[in-house]
Amino acid sequence: MQTNSWVPLFPDQASTFAWQVDLLYAYLIIVSIAFSIPIVVAIFYFGLKYREKEKYATPDEMHGSIALETVWSIIPFVVSMTIFLGGAYVYYNQFRIPDAPAMEVFIVGKQWMWKLQHSTGQREINELHVPVGRTVKLTMTTEDVLHDFSIPAFRTKTDVVPGRYTYLWFEATKPGKYHLFCAEYCGLNHSGMGGFVYVMEQRDFDNWLSGNVSGQTPVEQGRDLFENKLGCASCHAGGPQQRGAKLEGIFGHEVNLVGGQKVIADEAYIRKSILEPGTQVVEGFQPIMPTFKGQLTEEQLLALVRYIKSLSGVTGPTSSAGDAGAKQTASNSASNSTTVPRADRGSSNTQGSNPNAPSANSNR
Description:
By secondary structure, this protein is an alpha+beta fold. It contains 8 helices and 12 strands.
């Protein structure tokens, strides 16, 4: 972040799509000037030319011009369509997460701070360290009110909404220190809810990671919650005693619910199943799961979601915010299984003496 003795017109351009946003913004300014100046000049010109010269004069009748009306209909239409297409292109680039592997960071907003955790376990408060030239995906939620995570130098921002996950991605192009803000009024200390993004060369970033003692990774934290603290494994582990739906391999796939409904098992589905299990009961099971609403923090929910994703071999961010992912092949699952902590989930499910267990060929 450069220190200037003057106020810059724009922040630094420090992401891959920052120049696209500035180009579109400059085009909007040019269009506004191109229309505003002739209109203002015409107002003064016609105001003087057709000013009242005698009281109660009857003006001459004027008829329209087809050519003039056609021109001033076609030109604004063309200009409007170029703005629409340019905006759609920039929006697509900003909010469609690339398919390339990305570094994932989990963020929880809270009055009035940002709590961040890397997938390797390092935690930060109001600071984010990232390497230059690498795709970074942010998975965000909030503990209280609506916030907005904004990095002006990257020309990107996204609302952080209570009760759901929102996503943001960027690829920084220049090492430096850049402001981050909450861009949505969230209470009395809203103006103080800011911090910095530190963009570092890969070697410096690796040194920073190694110099910061990481606790449990999100997957490890989720596994601990799942198996020990919450006892989820007692119902969702495989075997004849299974009382809840099996979780391996479901992420990114279709799930059949009681009543004939079908949903895709994404982050939102997993979150809702934990907090409101009675609203989406898996076909073949009874609505016996208790709610964990009010018993888990947002960080714990993120960790549980991350762990359940890992049971399907999903170790990185999905390809887009709206697509809960992508279907993982068996080879991907096998290659990732050595790097992701996996619970001993027991043998394959059989009905046995448990009336709630589905048959072997039923949908999960």
